Amino acid sequence: KMLPGGPPPKVERWSHLSADVRIARFLSTLEVAISKIFCAGAGWQAAAILASGPLGQSTSSPLLFIVTGLGDALGVFCGHLTFSALASLMGKDVHFSKEALVALWLASAAV
Prior knowledge:
Elements: H1 19-52, H2 62-89, H3 96-108
């Protein structure tokens, strides 16, 4: 945002960041894409199939909305814990009690 009568804001580029920072940002983005977005979508889709199939709900049913929201949350929760477990197997120091709380917090945003 430009201040009245002032110069335009300086645009930051990635070139001022070290390679370590760039790699850390990329890995953080990759973690979100794998453990949250992909798993949340899979949980949502599985819950939608369950709600519209065996539960027989229409696409405008409030129960379908609830079931898909819970499936989304379960996907985020399980995805984060799975990603943390894989990171632990690769040598990263992971505190599972802390990660379980983080997974619960992230999943609660999906409901």
